[in-house]
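Instructor's aside before we start: the two examples that follow are unrelated to each other. I chose them only because their records fit on one page, so don't look for a connection. First example below.
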Amino acid sequence: MDLKDVNKRIIDRHDVFYWQAERKITEEEADEIWRDRHSAIKNDELLQVVNESLTDDKCVSIDNVNPNKQESLGNVNSNRVGHLKSGADVIIRCHPRGVKNGYFYVESLAADLLNKKGLPSYKTYAIHDCQSSNDCSFQVIEKIQGKAVQKFLEENPEKEENIVFEIGKTMARVHQIQVDGFGPFDNELAKKGTLKGICNTFYESVNAGLDFDLKTLVDYDIISREQAKEFRKLFDKNNPLLKCEKAVLVHNDFADWNLLTDGKTINGIIDLDECVASDPMCDLGCWSTFFDTSRLDTFLKGYFSIAPKPEHFEEKFQLFRLRYNISKMTLRVRRYTYDKNEAFKKKIDLGRTHLKDSAEYFGISK
């Protein structure tokens, strides 16, 4: 695998709606890159390079990866818990060896913005992007106290309604943050302290990667060619629902594994590697793809306790829910070619149900 070529493609977020789905690498390359993301980087060598990036407070030890801990819930980075000399704990988010990240500066700037607005996120201690095939990109961030919502609800299922209500409220507060541009943010500008989307219009950002996604779903027999054509028409430039004059910060992955709780509120927002400048309704549509519809009413009650309900809410919600389902199913079927685990099979089945619901809502037959 030519890492120089892969890195050029993988950090390019032009024509990308949801990076994990439309990143410009093949299924075979994705398998090779992420297959050994934990075991390929040893703690002793990581400790050395991390301390070269840290200034005053050095890291004295790093815990071994534990797949059962909440730090291991993500699919992109290998997350390690480190311990600084001062006694503070950090999370070291390591990208696979030799692969550039291309979004750590965006993530850190977005987290800073959340913190400045009084929302619970992390501070960043250091960022390093790999310089060779033997190097690794990493981000050293504050370890926020709290339990991942996913883990908390597994242990306290009776608290689900309260926590889901708080998730809705917290997302609405995030959407009070206005940003420039649309779509994925420019990482080079983020290095200089500017958070700006790389697309000029909301329409452009929503249509990014759409043709690729639809072709993938047809090729994998998830939808028919006729359905793909009808879905495509819904995102035509003349659709008035694709008008958005000013973007807000959209997390784009506001799921249980990326939120921390103290049991009462949401006290940590993490994993901003999919954040974009977009219409707030996109975040709602994205959130709905993770779960069945039983959660939705409680989530929306929380959200609209903070934010006003927009005009044409149901139509916009259904449109953006469909757009995310198309991307998420592209991600799932591509990944299932090299990672045939039962969890992904269940997600594909859930996605089929969501796409069927969308087809029925828009009057599109098989």
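Example two begins here.
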Amino acid sequence: MKIDETSLVPIFIQVAEWLEEEILQGNIQEEEQVPSTNQFAAIYSINPATARKGFGLLVEEGILYKKRGIGMFVAVGAKEKIQEKAKERFMKETLKQVWQEAKKLGLTKEDIVKLFMEFDN
């Protein structure tokens, strides 16, 4: 992971997104313990409170859970929750931008479908 301090994305969000990506890629499995916020902060040279805030977001979303006195773990179903969130973001943001650009270029819905079908081959 590379923390981009110049990014407009806050560091705690970058932390949460990195953990989500690791779960999506299968590098961290359900029920597996994740590094402590202090370990994470030390490894990536960030403030422990910032790491805690990023982990906290994922706890609120039910992606991570705490075992008192032991640490944080990936929840069962976390990968599916992340995929659903990513699909929603993709459809609302990315596809919207694609459609707006396509309209500017005079492409029809049929043109777009045809292009997508070509990607599948």
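The helical segments are 11-24, 37-44, 48-60, 78-104, 109-119.
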